[in-house]
Amino acid sequence: MTLTRRRFLTISAAMAAGPAWATPQRWQGRAFGADVSLTIRGPRDDAIGAIDATRQIIAHVEGLFSLYDPASALSELNRVGTLPQPDPDFLALMQAAEHGHLLTGGLFDPTIQPLWRALADGSDPAAASTAIGWDRVRFDAAAIQLERGQALTFNGIAQGFATDLITAQFQRLEMTETLVNIGEYRAIGGPWRLAVSDPVHGELGTRTIAQGAIATSSPTAMSLGAQAHILHPQHRARWSTVSVEAETATLADCVSTALCLAPLDQIVAMRAADGIGRITLVDFDGDLTTL
Fold first, then answer.
1. Which residues contact 17 (CB under 8 A, 6 or more apart)?
2. Which of 218, 209, 205 is CA-nearest to residue 190?
3. Quick one: which of 110, 159, 170, 171 has its CA closest to 139?
4. Separation CA 167–CA 282 (nearest Å)
5. How far apart are CA 239 and CA 228, in angstroms?
6. How many CB atoms lie within 10 A of CB 18?
7. How many CB atoms within 10 Å of residue 249?
8. Where do the domains of the chain lie, and which CATH numbers do they carry?
9. Rg (Cα) of the chain, in Å, rounded?
């Protein structure tokens, strides 16, 4: 497994009641396998409280969905095949994944984890592929149930979900200008100018957002042997980078992941879906297309 891009995640926010000259409060740590930097401007006590709330949300999401924590709820589900009485946020993410799966015609499929694991370990991918199929997962408030051999990964949606939870917390704290980046961006206020970058071709342009979210997926940012890390048993990556602007980071995250595998006509049709805005495509030659 080769990682070709390292992310430094940031959250920047301003309190509604904070004077413009207020000293920023900062915190640095680790989350979702990357460095995290929080910078919040406003009255000191309010800013420190917002940082504490953000850290609690990050810890909560990692405790639910981390594949690297054997004590996480997702690790437990993958290990035993069932998760009784799932946390409401776990159930909410399952419902968001269901929506993303249907919206993308099955290209977004969290049951891809056995194939990812097989490629990472050098074991038989054909055998792992037989376990894939989101339509075989059963879930409700009572329990989540996987079929034998299945396992889930939320690496294509959980960071967007965390971004939305943090943004909602900032809205409750009456922050008027925030840019949350936990791998995907969600903005309040602004405008915020963000670069469109490709792991191979570098920076290709900018996008400006004031409300809503933008998520970017690049299959070549990580490789599993000779294969890109965005996987599907019947499809291969068609784009070097896809950025999707949407109402929520959760939606933008899963759709940008899935559309890396989609032909252009399917992507054009996706633009009409509720909650989806501009879509930016970078092909393997470095040419950029905006829908």
1. 42, 43, 46, 174
2. 209
3. 110
4. 28
5. 11
6. 20
7. 30
8. 73-145 (1.10.3980.10)
9. 19
Answer whether 136's CB lies under 8 Å from 150's CB.
yes
Interval 60-84: pLDDT, tens: 999 999 998 999 999 999 999 999 9
The CA distances from residue 269 to 91, 105, 107, 198, in Å, are 28, 11, 14, 24
List the structure tokens of 14.
Answer: 């301003």
Q: Which of 211, 162, 205, 207 is nearest to 182 (CA)?
A: 162
Side chain identity at 85, as an amino acid letter? Answer: Q
Going from the C-alpha of 66 to that of each of 60, 72, 126, 166, 274, the distances in angstroms are 10, 6, 25, 17, 29
Cis peptide before 191 (omega within 30 of 0): yes
Reading the block at residue 284, the tokens are 């393997």
For 220-244, the pLDDT digits (tens) are: 766 555 566 676 777 788 999 999 9
Yes or no: say if 240 and 286 are a contact pair by the CB < 8 Å rule: yes
